[in-house]
């Protein structure tokens, strides 16, 4: 009978102590071992498993090796980007926030929860790139900005109408969030406009750690923002703060900033709601053009990216403070 202890030592040495439960399953030399791959990036797991198996198979008395890989399920910090109203710049902010956080060293991924109207593939230049399935889960699509991403827009053909009913939409959202995120620890989730089914599923099933609310300066949009705030507050999702987008118009010719909708309204509304104000992003031709071209302004050195970096700095502080508490 082959002794277990020396085999267990070999396995532990080889894997940096990641093995446990080594035992023979029968008298013909079938060995079983549990390999803990927590914290290892997806591509590093299989080579370690192979190395372990080969080393054990090389020992006398071992005829086959069954490796059971386990990984502690890492809780992702989910940050939802929402608004009560459509077209206020949630997707633009979500994309740039993710890129800016990445540039600050946060291991961040991006999910397009706008199941019916996905726009992140275009904003992140990954239209038509399909995610691969790894086992029963999806592998996020990489992009030039270092922010792996999943969107129904990468699954459906561009321009194709997505007409899923509620349960299917819920299932799709599940697949996007419960994916093989590897070493990502923070997910930015771009929500559809309003306070409907997808938002409620998202909040209840995938409990975000916090929410960023986007609003334009108009009173009407701010009323909608208050509605989004109350949706998150009812579900006890902390509000990270409010971002005022399309705040003031930066003239592309002279650079002068004018405020067609007045200024300071969003900041005052945030104060009235008792939530933090994360900053103003001006309405700028450069932001629209870069976004349409699939280059988030936060990815480059253009001054158009600066307001997004300022918002990201506050969100990064919030993430750090949450970790510390
Ligand atoms: N600060 C800005 N300056 C100029 N254009 C902007 C700005 N923010 C967003 N846009 C443009 O406004 C349009 C709507 O933005 P976006 O798609 O991000 O809004 P949304 O809130 O996600 O919309 P929806 O509710 O449809 O999901 C886009 O064409 C985008 O490029
Ligand atoms: Mg959007």
TrEMBL record:
Alphabetical GO biological process terms: iron-sulfur cluster assembly
Residue positions binding ATP: 84-91
Keywords in alphabetical order: ATP-binding, Hydrolase, Iron, Iron-sulfur, Metal-binding, Nucleotide-binding
SUPFAM superfamilies the record matches: P-loop containing nucleoside triphosphate hydrolases
GO molecular function, one term: 4 iron, 4 sulfur cluster binding
Subunit structure: Homodimer.
Function: Binds and transfers iron-sulfur (Fe-S) clusters to target apoproteins. Can hydrolyze ATP.
Family that this chain belongs to: Belongs to the Mrp/NBP35 ATP-binding proteins family.
Protein name from the UniProt record: Iron-sulfur cluster carrier protein
Record organism: Sphingopyxis indica
């Amino acid at each position: 009978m082959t002794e277990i202890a020396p085999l267990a030592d070999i396995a532990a040495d080889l894997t940096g102590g990641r093995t446990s439960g080594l035992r023979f399953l029968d008298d013909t030399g079938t060995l079983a071992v549990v390999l803990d791959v927590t914290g290892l990036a997806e591509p590093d797991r299989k080579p370690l498993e192979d190395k372990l198996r080969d080393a054990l198979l090389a020992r006398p008395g071992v005829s086959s090796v069954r490796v059971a890989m386990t990984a502690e399920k890492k809780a992702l910090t989910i940050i939802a980007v929402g608004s009560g109203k459509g077209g206020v710049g949630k997707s633009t902010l979500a994309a740039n926030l993710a890129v800016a956080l990445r540039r600050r060293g946060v291991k961040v991924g991006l999910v397009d929860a706008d199941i019916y109207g996905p726009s992140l593939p275009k904003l992140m230049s990954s239209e038509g790139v399909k995610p691969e399935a790894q086992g029963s889960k999806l592998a996020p699509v990489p992009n030039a900005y270092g922010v792996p991403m999943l969107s129904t827009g990468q699954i459906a053909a561009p321009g194709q109408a997505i007409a899923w009913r509620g349960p299917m939409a819920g299932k799709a959202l599940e697949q996007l969030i419960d994916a093989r995120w590897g070493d990502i620890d923070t997910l930015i989730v771009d929500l559809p406009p309003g306070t409907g089914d997808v938002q409620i599923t998202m909040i209840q099933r995938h409990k975000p750690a916090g929410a960023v609310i986007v609003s334009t300066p108009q009173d009407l949009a701010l009323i909608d923002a208050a509605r989004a705030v109350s949706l998150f507050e009812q579900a006890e999702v902390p509000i990270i703060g409010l971002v005022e987008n399309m705040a003031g118009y930066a003239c592309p010719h002279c650079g002068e900033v004018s405020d067609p909708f007045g200024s300071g309204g969003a900041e005052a509304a945030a104060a009235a709601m008792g939530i933090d104000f994360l900053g103003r992003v001006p309405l700028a031709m450069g932001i629209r053009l870069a976004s349409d071209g699939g280059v988030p302004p936060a990815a480059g050195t253009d001054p158009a990216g600066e307001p997004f970096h300022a918002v990201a700095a506050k969100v990064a502080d919030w993430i750090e403070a949450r970790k510390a508490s």
